[in-house]
Each structure stands twice: as structure tokens, then as C-alpha cells.
Specification:
Alpha-Beta Plaits; Elongation Factor Tu (Ef-tu), domain 3; seven-stranded mixed sheet; six-stranded antiparallel β-barrel; 7 helices; globular
Length: about 325
């Protein structure tokens, strides 16, 4: 399901998330169910984070890499008593199954694409934990991707602590699809304001959260983006680990995902050229109007030499003009 651009007032929607609580529809995300006695061990050997040590009710962010350390997809892992749920970016469920299946030999791990079987509203904002408690009686887990079963409007749901996509406390509700509209309306009636893509992108980019398909894809090395929440350096081998550890211990990456704060009012397009000292220094990967900073902001890859926060660069705009911009650390300071 595509997220609408807005619900009539993107700035007010943004303010609701920063000051109270908003709700966005993440039902377009993929959902995989992994069963079988070897499910945790197999995923542990495949993914960049520690899956094997997760107890039921715990979770983590992770990446699936290729042997060269390049990102094939982001994943969010939820351990249950009898299965593991993998949340994927939109459109990545089947390709994730295909990629994992290529490594599956005698292990007892079975994959089911459950995309579309769940509605996934996400509450975001400082009042999100209180709203979850008011609606379900459950307390949101403290750790990102921790989760628990609950009931809302007589519907059995799973409540998941988000990882900070918006920079605010978050709760994803995994709801059986037929009950999705009922739960959506109950959440709104309880005070959550729906927010659309314009507010979400402003929140996401301000928070420095890379989106798969925009800021990361199979051309990107994991250490080129903010990645510490997606990796364990103590878990042992996984696909692509050798490259990640070699970069940490003996080398560096030649480009980094950084923020850009632009002058003027024009938002650059994805792929816009970043220029420093008359030479191409990188490319914009995603951009939005920042309702917090009241100016355009972007994420983009810049060469290591220009990656220091405060470095001045130019960004080529859609009309061919150039906007001055300052390189920013992530998340952006508001």
C-alpha cells in the first residue's frame, strides 16, 4: 500500500509526531515467517546482526549482504517462540527469500511470504508509548524491536518497539489484515494524527535514517552508511563479514552517507550532483523539505575528503542552478 503524500497539512502532521503522536501506514513492508528447528542458526549465519541469542520477544535490525559486503536488503528480525518474523522494505520479501534460499542446504529452515497478511500502522511521537498503553494495557518494550502480544478492540495484535526511523519513540502494530481498518480508526480516535509521505520523509531524513532503495542498495557497502545498529562484531561469521571487519580494522571507505543542509527553498532531486572545488564530490540519495529546520535537507554520498561536518559544497538543482550546502553529521541538529 502506497503512503499518501499528506492528509491535507504536512507541516501539522510533522508537528504532531514531534510534539504528540502520529500514525503512518507501513503495510507496504514485506513480512516473512521463518520456521524450522534451524531457523535461528541459519539466519545467524546469514545476517549481519546477532540472531541466535535473541529470546522470544526480542528483536534486532540487520542487513543481508553479499560476499563483497554490499547491502542486499535491510531486515528487522522478531523472535517468537515458534518462528521468526522478518520485516523487509517494500517489495523486498520474495527477493529476500530467493537470496537466503541460495544458501540453504540441509538446514531445517522454511520461509513463507506473509506479505499482505498484516496491516502495519506505526505510531510515532513522544506520546506513542502512552497511547499504546491506553489502547492495549501493554507497556512498550524498552529495547528497539522488542515486541509482545496484545489486544486492541478485541483484535489480537503484536506490538513492536520501532528502531527510530522518525527520531521519536515508535510502536509498530502487526494487525491481521482484515482488522486493519478497525485498528487504524481506533488509533485515530484515541488521538493519533495520520501523517503522510511528506512528513515521514522530513522526519526520516532529519533523523539520518537510510531507506533501502534510495540511500542504500546493492552498490553500497554496509560501512558507507550509519550501520552500528545493524551489526554485531562478536557473533562470528556471516555473509560479507570479512569485508566489514577489514574496513573497520585496516582501512576506510572512500565515500560516506552524510546530511546536507541547503540554502534557498528548492529541494534537490535524487541523483543530483554534489560539487566541491569545481569537481563532482558525490550524489544526493534522498531529499525533502525539513519542517524542523525550515529549509531543504538531503542525504547523499560524499567523498571522504568532503565528509567532515561543516564542509561547504554545492548541489545542482533541477533547473541547473546550484545551491550552497553544508555537510552535516547524522542525525541533523534541530
Amino acid at each position: 500500500m502506497a503512503i499518501p503524500l499528506d492528509y491535507g497539512n504536512a507541516a501539522a502532521e510533522y508537528d504532531a509526531v514531534r510534539r504528540a503522536v502520529g500514525v503512518v501506514d507501513h503495510s507496504g513492508n514485506g513480512v516473512l515467517e521463518v520456521t524450522g528447528r534451524d531457523r535461528a542458526a541459519f539466519l545467524h549465519a546469514m545476517l549481519s546482526n546477532d540472531v541466535k541469542s535473541l529470546a522470544a520477544g526480542q528483536g534486532c535490525a540487520a542487513s543481508l549482504l553479499d560476499v563483497h559486503g554490499k547491502i542486499q536488503t535491510f531486515l528487522w528480525v522478531l523472535a517468537l517462540e515458534d518462528r521468526v518474523l522478518l520485516l523487509t522494505p517494500p517489495g523486498r520479501a520474495q527477493s529476500t527469500i530467493d537470496a537466503l534460499d541460495a544458501y540453504l542446504f540441509s538446514e531445517k529452515a522454511y520461509f513463507l511470504d506473509a506479505t499482505g497478511e498484516f496491516a502495519i500502522p506505526m505510531l510515532a511521537g513522544p506520546e506513542a508509548p502512552a497511547l499504546v498503553h491506553r489502547l492495549t494495557g501493554a507497556s512498550l518494550p524498552d529495547a528497539p524491536w522488542g515486541h509482545l502480544s496484545a489486544s486492541l478492540a478485541s483484535v489480537s495484535i503484536r506490538v513492536v518497539r520501532g528502531g527510530g526511523e522518525t527520531g521519536e519513540p515508535e510502536a509498530l502494530l502487526l494487525v491481521p489484515a482484515p482488522d486493519g481498518e478497525t485498528v487504524w480508526q481506533k488509533v485515530i480516535e484515541a488521538g493519533a494524527r495520520p501523517f503522510g509521505l511528506a512528513a515521514l520523509e522530513s522526519l526520516r531524513i532529519e533523523s539520518g535514517t537510510p531507506a533501502f532503495g534510495d540511500d542504500a542498495d546493492s552498490s553500497v557497502l554496509l560501512p558507507e552508511i550509519p550501520f552500528l545498529d545493524k551489526v554485531s562484531y562478536t557473533k562470528g561469521c556471516y555473509v560479507g563479514q570479512e569485508v566489514v571487519v577489514r574496513i573497520r580494522d585496516r582501512g576506510h571507505v572512500n565515500r560516506m552517507l552524510r546530511g546536507l543542509v541547503l540554502d534557498g527553498e528548492s529541494v534537490p532531486t535524487r541523483g543530483a550532483t554534489i560539487v566541491a572545488d569545481g569537481n563532482e564530490a558525490g550524489r544526493v540519495t534522498s531529499a525533502a523539505w525539513s519542517f524542523g529546520l525550515k529549509r531543504p535537507i538531503a542525504l547523499g554520498f560524499v567523498k571522504r575528503q568532503q565528509a567532515e561536518p561543516g564542509t561547504m559544497v554545492d548541489v545542482v538543482l533541477p533547473d541547473g542552478e546550484r545551491a550552497h550546502a553544508s555537510v552535516s553529521a547524522l542525525p541533523f541538529a534541530r
